[in-house]
Amino acid sequence: MNALTPLPGLPAAFPPPMGLIAELTHRCPLQCPYCSNPLALESASAELDTENWLRVLDEAAALGVLQCHFTGGEPMARRDLTALVRRAAEGGMYTNLITSGVTLDDRAMAALKDAGIDHIQLSFQDIDPAENDRVGNHAGAFVKKRAAIDRIRGAGLPLTLNFVIQRHNAGRVGAMLDFAEAMQAERVEIAHVQYYGWGLKNRAALLPTRAQLDDSTDVVEAARVRLRGKMVIDYVVPDYHASRPKSCMGGWAQRFINISPSGKCLPCHAAETLPGFDFPSVRTHSLAEVWESEAFRRYRGTDWMPEPCRSCDRRELDWGGCRCEAFALTGDASITDPACELSPDHYLMAEAALESGVASPPFIYRRLKALARV
Ligand code: SF4
Ligand code: FES
């Protein structure tokens, strides 16, 4: 069955995606050991050119996509970023830049503002500057990020700060929230590492203990009460200590199209880890065709579900959890996510969680050979 063959028994069309996740490049000045990019990073020479990205953005607007998230790697490594932001904004999409901030200088900020960027999401590796720089393996990163906040605030743009939580910084969640409040961020994400790709490779070095997770949850809940109406706090926990899975990406191919730097279309950033798929490319297919392709329809909705999901009253809340996590832990993407305690494979999560109690091995940093600009 090729990528565009309709599956029997499914409606011909599905409501359009809410968001386009444009992974413009895998190049990045940072080397975080939990990067959501695949282990096999795409090189600069494989990246889609400007003309193709502009066409994709036009197609997204025509399809009814509401939000365009420019991400990477570091999307600011693309020289054409402002042209792409401008085209997305002209198409009526809400534009969001997800950046490490280390190259967001005055000139770049002015150009993005002029292009019509609506929102910037700035990631931190820690609130402790030395640890921040160690995790990203980039000396001086914290100082540059702090300066980037002032530029974003100076441009009058809404700001989300993103802190990625793992065993080495889980005790500083309170300080992260205090910092976000002091920076007058509209939103802060306290997001525990998700264990796919590089995160899975570094799981033994990153997974927090149950006690660390519980402490961070208590801190977040107290801050949510204190800061209600002032700052939104998003909180993402690791599935390894959960009893039910999260609704990954809002359900497989229900809300997002993720486009890799080379133009491969994926229902989520980790889908390339799944064997037996023929993911369509924007080089050969329109976004409308991609959205109705076999790869996107395979785990959409509930028809694909086995038991215990099939008869579960949460099946339209978490959509059976994460397909990539199910595959990473069991070798089968079509079964209930082992994060669910109703799954017969749930013991695999408990076994892996034991890793959090042993000494941390060194990080395996995410590496790309060269940071060239195009
Ligand atoms: Fe979710 Fe399936 Fe577990 Fe029910 S059985 S909670 S649908 S993962
Ligand atoms: Fe792929 Fe969850 S990351 S479905």
Helices and strands in order:
Blueprint: E1 19-23, H1 50-63, E2 67-71, H2 81-90, E3 94-99, H3 106-115, E4 119-124, H4 129-136, H5 141-154, E5 159-165, H6 173-182, E6 187-192, H7 197-201, H8 203-206, H9 210-226, E7 232-236, E8 256-259, E9 265-266, H10 287-291, H11 294-297, H12 323-330, H13 346-353
Parallel strand pairs: 1-2, 1-8, 2-3, 3-4, 4-5, 5-6, 6-7
Antiparallel strand pairs: 8-9
This protein binds iron/sulfur cluster and FE2/S2 (inorganic) cluster.
The site of FE2/S2 (inorganic) cluster (FES) has 10 residues, from helix 12.
What class do helices, strands and sheet pairing give?
alpha/beta
Q: Give the distinct bound molecules.
A: iron/sulfur cluster, FE2/S2 (inorganic) cluster
User: Mind summarizing the main beta sheet?
Assistant: 9 strands, mixed
Helix content: 25-40%
Q: How are the strands ordered across the major sheet?
A: 7-6-5-4-3-2-1-8-9
H-E string: EHEHEHEHHEHEHHHEEEHHHH
Name the beta content range: 5-15%
Distance between the termini: 37 Å
**Average pLDDT across residues?**
93
How many helices in DSSP terms?
13
Shape: globular
Tell me the Rg in angstroms: 20 Å
β-strand number: 9
Taking pLDDT < 50 over at least 5 consecutive residues as the criterion, the unreliable ranges are: 1-11, 370-374
